[in-house]
Amino acid sequence: MSEIVNTFEAQQQGRPTGPLVHGYEVIIGFETHAQLSTASKIFSRASTAFGAEPNTQACAVDLALPGTLPVMNKGAVERAIEFGLAVNSHIAERSIFARKNYFYPDLPKGYQISQFEIPVVQGGAVEFFLETGKGAELAREKKAVRLVRAHLEEDAGKSLHEDFIGQTGIDLNRAGTPLLEIVTEPDMRSSTEAVAYAKELHKIVTWIGICDGNMQEGSFRCDANVSVRKPGQPLGKRREIKNLNSFKFMQQAIDYEVRWQIEQIEDGHAIEQATVLFNPDTGETRAMRTKEDAADYRYFPDPDLPPLCISEQWIEQVRGLMAELPRVMAERFVRDYGLSEYDATQLTQSQALAKYFEIATQICGQAKLAANWVLGEVSAFINKRDIAIDDVEVPNPVALGEVLKRIAIGEINGGGAKTAFQQLCNQQFDGVADLATYILHVDKIIQDHDLKQMNDSGALETIVEEVIAANAKNVAEFKAGNEKALNALVGQIMKASKGKANPQQVNDLLRSKLA
User: Fold this and answer.
1) Residue intervals in the chain for CATH 1.10.10.410
2) What distance in Å separates the CA atoms of residue 404 and residue 370, rounded to the nearest whole number?
3) Which numeric CATH code is attached to 457-514?
4) Most buried residue, 112, 165, 170, 513, by CB count within 10 Å?
């Protein structure tokens, strides 16, 4: 049985909640830049569309040319409010924008407009399940990573190195694109936990539609702050791994950085606070520059932007337009369908998956059965092919519901249902079929493949008696207390019935005969 442990209280008290690595505790915090899904930039009307020719979508406002003034994008503010509501944060009634001063070639103004002292979103938490171990050792812990803040800011441009020999090109199309930077407390204790947090955060921002989550295009970029310490010691110096754009690389980068820091400390070297980059080709991190602190950026309030004021009425208006949140839907699945908290959380990984489950449940009337199949056979099918749940290759949830209904009424057993599911995977309907069409389709699959369960008790009893007579050794072992011997007898009966016997009926009949 999987154990579910709530470790949030332990995290709050600062106790180690993860495994030690060579006697060291790993401390991880995240800063994530989510590009907001507005059509125009945060302070101008320039387009945010991806893939345009370089420097065709950077206007005078984005470059802060003389005589231009930034104007706040209302849509960006509303997306920040949506995120705050999704993670139970406080939405500041009044927040301010500041100028963060630093120079890079792709930041033409010499400063970035961001929020510092008073961010728009304050506090909150991201909750998720963390799986450790396998088989009988499998454990599921409910984790909660606390958020410090989420603040609005503009993105910089992009330096292009690949297409120029000995030179760097600058594309300013991305300059001024609205970002929500989401900052956590240092609550994570392993790369596995960090990736689980990042996946949950990715799910939230894509679910509510504030970000498309495309990591390859840079819409969802994660920076991991990693340090190590001996248990009970103060926090060590952190190194920030920048721009992790895949969950696979994220885990590799953190694991390498942890090993590197421990080796440095064990060899007597001090860790210097720095910004580092991960090279997927070598699997290593390398220092890019020393890490700046807030004082280095010389923050001061932006004189061109008034304070951002958000009324309670505006917040409620945004709340009223939001779709059902994943955590709220998961609570409903537990309450209305009797599912475990873990199953409900897994089924709400995306709106499409949750919808698929609910349709199948509506048809078959068996929520737990539908959950097991969606998280089992269906998920295995889509993962193997690397497709989405709403791909045309995936059997329609109505058709799946009809197959599951036949299990519930005893018409087919689990093996027959798997065969029917495989047949559904090989067939697609043109357009949207009605329920009657799906019923006839499933009926035909069952008939064509002879999947109907054996419900003739007389015929089944004959098979059971024949198997008992032919397997005296297994019978004797079972009577001597070996429960596994019963499974061998059940297997023989299922084989003799060509897999069409009702397993529960076989089990009951066997025990009755052997009593």
Assistant:
1) 457-514
2) 7
3) 1.10.10.410
4) 112
